[in-house]
Amino acid sequence: MGERVLVTGATGYVAGHCIEELLRHGYAVRGTVRRPGDTAAVAHLRAIADEVGGELELVEAHLDRDEGWDAAVEGCPLVMHVASPLPIENPTDEEALLGPAREGTLRVLRAAARGGVRRVVQTSSVAAVHYSGTPEDHVCTEADWSDPALTPLYPKSKTLAERAAWDFHASLPEAERFELVVMNPALVIGPVQRDRTNASVEPIRRLLSRAMPAVPALSWNLVDVRDVAVAHRLGLESDVAPGSRYILSNGSWWFRDVSRVLAEAFRGEGLRPPTRHLPYPVLWLASRFDPVLRRILPDIGRQRIYSSDKARTELGWEPRDPRQSIVDTGRSLLDHGIVTP
Ligand code: NAP
Predict the structure, then answer these.
(1) Taking Cα atoms as reference points, which of 119, 105, 93, 107 lies closest to residue 27?
(2) Which of 46, 116, 286, 317 is the most buried (most CB within 10 A)?
(3) What is the average pLDDT value for the chain, to the nearest integer?
(4) What's the CA gap between 211 and 205, in Å, rounded?
């Protein structure tokens, strides 16, 4: 069995795929969960571990509590800190999001330093990159940082959490300093492993189930969750990764083009993803009653550009065709009964 990796937030969408990637590459995995009694939330991971004969252990730890983190880290030379709140709807109390993101990161990293961990790969986001006040045609790279004063709540949580990680890392005496690598994924899509969606797959669910009858002029930078998991593993293994952040994006897609790919793939199965344009005034009106639409309103008509050249050249990261990611997302939503024809 390979080295043991602690993965935080094992019940999550991204962490689930990271755990699968690790188990399939021979690592032993210890995952943290908030509700150890909820076996249904991790049944898919148990099944993968059984299939590959891998070692999977689950322990309780909460980002908003101190207890549990030292025990979680013990015996793990490697850590993937993936957990962080990614709510579909923003909480009214900002600290409910900022606290687990920023203080939770510090809890994990302090335990890693105390436990003699060798390397930590942390999941940040392009949300910690692009709110920098740069013009729309600026190609965002790892040199860009979001300004917390310019960001909505979730990007603020990711910016503060990543800043906290680098600052804490820099403050450690050299002898206690683990290696730190940060991944900054764009909007993550790709197959769900269990019968729940998360915030980033939700728009595809809405298109596929026609919960959205027309398509807003919204553009996404997409990345497949399986490719995000590969990048996290490469982040653990690469000799050159320590000290770097890596943007993980596989190009910008307009919503209408995503919906067209879905329509082509699933029309024959009784699904009718919309292809008509949703005019801004209608969207604005609908957003008064829908918090998800309210959140996307400032992005209407805007297209951001990211470079993932660093991940490609330094890590040898090769993301798959985004069309495949879109179709596989839809297929998994059908397979898990989240969308029904
Ligand atoms: P997700 O499916 O909602 O998973 C979030 C995970 O964090 C869950 O396991 C959740 O546990 C855990 N968590 C939340 N609050 C916690 C707390 N207070 N204590 C302990 N665990 C807590 O979201 P995801 O898409 O996989 O996101 C995972 C990471 O990727 C996050 O850091 C997110 O910011 C980052 N990311 C995601 C995207 C994207 O498009 N999805 C893009 C860029 C970056 P429960 O199951 O118990 O709630």
Answers:
(1) 119
(2) 317
(3) 95
(4) 8
Task: Give 131's DSSP letter.
Answer: -
Closest atom of ligand 1 to 188 CA is: 40
Residues 248 and 142: their CA atoms lie apart, in Å, by 10
For residue 179, give the amino acid letter.
E
CATH architecture of the domain with range 4-198+222-251+303-320 = 3-Layer(aba) Sandwich (3.40)
How remote is the CA of residue 81 from the centroid of ligand 1, in Å? 10
The predicted-structure confidence for 163-190, as pLDDT tens digits, reads as follows 999 999 999 998 889 999 999 999 999 9
Domain spans of the chain, in order of start: 4-198+222-251+303-320
What per-residue confidence (pLDDT) applies to 276?
92
Confidence of residue 154 (pLDDT cuts 50, 70, 90): very high
18 C-beta closer than 6 A to ligand 1: no
Active site residues: 158
Q: Quick one: which atom of ligand 1 is closest to the CA of 158?
A: 34
